[in-house]
Specification:
3-stranded antiparallel beta sheet; 7 helices; single chain; mainly alpha
């Protein structure tokens, strides 16, 4: 075991393999957390299910309010709301609805980000501000996601699943990947680039 770790460290020092090892570690951490989260979710977030459920409720309320504000004040869209449902008039002159349920919150993505950044190498003095900044960015990406899905329901009322499952969910993880790339390029390997 120690021999394998030494080999990996030696490979990591070789500039030819650094990027490959970084991406490999990123993939392992992302998938590891995904399956850990699914297992924890199956256990109903034991032992802190009450706290997690309250967090889901508060986060969905915040996401709903932020999304409504952006739709009304930035896009000037007339919306109707009921509880956590946003309705817009679509191209068929009927209403399309987006339900901002507790599952819509970015809790999983927040935890993905924290897990990734805590376990990925890099200077802690930068992690202390970069992790919270990432959480704020992830929250606003989620607002963009809800607003984007709602706006897409105006011209494409029958395509909610496509926009929800493929376009905007992919966007979430694309932003996490971009923030990770910035971390690797600007903080993890910055000293090495200065030396070259």
């Amino acid at each position: 075991m120690d021999l394998n770790i030494k080999k990996i460290k030696e490979l990591y020092k070789d500039k030819k393999y650094t990027s490959t090892i970084d991406v490999g570690l990123f993939i392992v951490l992302i998938f590891s957390f995904h399956f850990l989260y699914l297992g924890w979710q199956a256990l109903n977030y034991f032992p802190i299910q009450d706290l997690i459920n309250r967090l889901f409720d508060s986060a969905s309320e915040l996401l709903f309010n932020q999304s409504c504000w952006v739709l009304e004040h930035i896009f000037r869209i007339d919306i109707i709301t009921h509880e956590h449902i946003i309705g817009v008039i679509n191209c068929n002159e009927t209403y399309s609805y987006v339900n901002v349920a507790p599952e819509c919150t970015s809790l999983k993505q927040w935890l993905h980000w924290v897990f990734l950044m805590l376990l990925f190498p890099g200077p802690w003095k930068h992690k202390l501000w970069y992790i919270p900044l990432g959480l704020v960015i992830i929250e606003w990406v989620n607002v963009i996601r809800v607003v984007g899905i709602t706006l897409c329901m105006i011209p494409f009322p029958g395509h909610f699943d496509f926009f929800h499952d493929y376009v905007f969910k992919t966007m979430f993880y694309l932003f996490i990947f971009i923030m990770w790339v910035i971390w690797v390029e600007k903080f993890l390997h910055k000293k090495e680039k200065i030396k070259n």
